[in-house]
Amino acid sequence: MLFLIWTGVLIGVIYIYLRRAHSRYTPYDIKQLPTLPFIGNVLPLILRKMHFVEDLSRYYDSFPEERFIGKYEFTNPVIIVRDLELIKKVTIKDFEYFLDHRAFTDETVEPIFARNLFSLRGDEWKDMRSTLSPAFTSSKIRVMVPFMEEVGNQMMAALKKQIKANGGQPVEIDCRDLTRRYANDVIASCAFGLKVDSHADGDTQFFEMGRNAAEFKMRQMIMFLAYSAFPTFVKWIKITLFTKETTSFFRSLVIDTMRNREAHNILRPDMIHLLMEAKKGHLNHDENSKERDAGFATVEESAVGKKHIIRTWSDNDLIAQAVLFFIAGFETVSSAMSFAIRELALNKDIQDRLAKNIREDFNKNNGKIDYTSIQNLPYLDQVFSEVLRLWTPGFQLDRICTKPYNLGKPNKNGQKEYIVSNIRNIIWL
């Protein structure tokens, strides 16, 4: 009898806690979809019945008159911002309130991910940002274009070989696989200094390990949601984003490559070289550079990025940045290319005009493709900008509110302003 009483009390306490946890927005008239006890709003994601993009669109489209909406990842409260002016305030004007991203893992559990630029916070993020930003100037990207061209030639050679094997007739190509292999080989060349031809050689070890690191499978999704809601528990049971095999592969790859280059005085203008220069403190902004910062996602560097930092790099710091280059570039680049191919196939007039422009520039430069010739193709820039607008690989941004911030009223009829004080994350489109 006593056991039943205490069981009933425990259930009652849990019920009251969950009800309060999922009712944080009610007093402020912040709209939210129905929640499940403890699960919150993440059941469709856990069961893989809905993609993250579909899930976000569901909230966005369900409340068209709201400036921001509430959501729960388990018991962890999240705000989804819809209002464009509020997004500008959060990302620009009041950015000092939202410096940090949410964490996906802990440095004690998985240092090669926790130490990357995306995961660092506060002053560590600012210092790393300042240290690495010279690696992404147009003058540094310029010298990597030949590596990208070489990989493009490998891809074209593989396609021509398939057409020839088919008697010169058209062949059916899986564009998603094609662009993933291209992105993989470009990153292998530009970031890790490896010559990989996954079009001709099939599923190489680098391709397999890279795919394991970049794909967002069930393991990564559970880790992503669980660490946001229960960081202490996840650290205790030591769940990792990557398998031990993947972690060991990239650790050995980066460290061995750097040691080999130092031992044999090898100089190759890729990301490994830039990281080695950063470790020595030799990677600085070229204040006298006359490279134009326009088009194709190149922008003028801010004062934050030009701040001179002297820091001591650990091996984990170097490995983390190298792996981040892969994760950030593999799916995003291949997805953008796939959608570009799709749109060009559906819009033949645009395809013909773009092909004409490229051929004319190609002939004008005697068959040479370099950074300057690409910059002289504004229509190509317009096509990819439109593809990225329609099919953006980056479908959300997330930030943690580091100090109390007034978001204002959730809608024009709202009576109370909502001050973010105990919320962990803000997500906006």
TrEMBL record:
It comes from the Eukaryota. It is a peripheral membrane protein. It is found in: Endoplasmic reticulum membrane; Microsome membrane. SUPFAM superfamilies: Cytochrome P450 (SSF48264). Its EC number is 1.14.14.1. One of its GO terms (molecular function) is oxidoreductase activity, acting on paired donors, with incorporation or reduction of molecular oxygen, reduced flavin or flavoprotein as one donor, and incorporation of one atom of oxygen. Pfam families: p450. This is unspecific monooxygenase.
